[in-house]
Amino acid sequence: MVVVYLVIFWLMQAAAQVLFKYGTVLPGKHTLFFILGNVPGASSILLLMQLYKIMNPNLALALGTGGGFLACQIALAIIFRSSLSVPQYASMAAIGAGMFGFTFFNKS
Q: First and final CA of the chain: distance in angstroms?
C-alpha cells in the first residue's frame, strides 16, 4: 500500500505543478488554475499524512518530496517541452540516489 500511496502522491504533486504552470501561460486564467492546482496539491498532503502513519516519517518525507520533485520536473519538461541540461539530469539522479539511500539505510 505504501508504494500505491507514494505513486499517487507523486502524480498529484505533478498535476498540481502543471496546472500552476498553465495559470502562468494562459492570459486571464491565473486564479482559475491556482484553484485547480490546489485541488490535487492540497489533497495530496492527506496521502503524505497516511504515509506518516504507516512508515518512518523521515522516510515518508524523503520519498514523498524527493519523488514528488522528480515527478514534477519530468512532467514540466515533457508537457512544456523545457529542455534540461546534463547537470540538471545529474542532479535528478542524485535526488534518486538520496531516496534510495534513505530507503536502504532506514533503521526501522
A: 17
Q: Are 55 and 2 in contact (CB under 8 A)?
A: yes
Record the pTM.
0.91
Distance CA 12, CA 39 (A): 9
The residue to which cell 516519517 is assigned:
57
Residues 10-24 pLDDT 10s: 999 999 999 999 999
Q: How many helices (H) and strands (E) does the chain have?
A: 4, 0
Q: 14 burial class (0-12, 13-18, 19+ CB within 10 angstroms)?
A: buried
Pairwise CA distance, residues 9 & 7, whole Å: 5
Residue 101: what residue type? G
Per-residue pLDDT tens over the stretch 26-49: 999 999 999 999 999 999 999 999
